[in-house]
Amino acid sequence: STELCLLPALAALLPPLPGPGGPGPAEVGPGALPAELRAAVRALVGDLDSLFSALGLREESFAVGALSRVVAAELASYAPARNRRRTATNKASVIFVDRTLDLAGAVGHHGDNLAEKILSVLPKLPGHKTDVMVNMVELTALKTTDETCSIIAPGCLAQPNDPAAKALWESFMNLKQKEAVMEARRYLVEAASRENLPIKMSMGEVTPEQLSSYIQLFRNNLKALENHCGLLQLVLATVQTLKHPQTSKWDNFLAFERLLLQ
Prior knowledge:
Blueprint: H1 35-55, E1 57-64, H2 66-77, H3 79-87, E2 90-97, H4 114-121, H5 163-174, H6 177-194, H7 208-216, H8 222-227, H9 229-243, H10 245-261
Parallel strand pairs: 1-2
């Protein structure tokens, strides 16, 4: 999204947890890291330097956590980065934060965020760390009850060539779930109207069944399908997430967590 860029190649990079007799957090330096982790840190530094070069950035680094201090120090002393900082015109503050500070988040059900739920409950797109499979059978005439139907290629969330889908994804990330689902309905109604499909706009709460009925209008119209394929994939992801049994479990867990916090 415009606010967030993920580097999935480095998804496995995690700070080592201090064990008994191991180095304390303050003592961790590049030499104390396992060889594999040292190589991953160097790869990250190289990737960041390439990214900052493309953006023309001269960075000032800050670190929170032991491994973050190592990464920031390696970037500061990296020869190509020193050369870039001498010539770059744009300034930026870069904050590195250890992911061990995230571990509690992995077992939390924090929010009312549609993007978080979609990414959590739908199956991962094969070979990808940050995208999911969207079942596209609903847009075909195929009758199957198989959830993992492999005849139809899956859809996904990344839709760089569809401006409406990109804008809707931003809504999924930034709005509360109820507002995001209403945005999904609005974009779908606008797309159907542009294609002169017989759509009736209804007010009130948006249900997955209502979104599915709107999606069905596109099914037999190949031109409309082609024009709005990216948007339809995101709305289908919404429908499948809202209907997923894991979503109701999520809401129950969230209620328990709120009670515990109180």
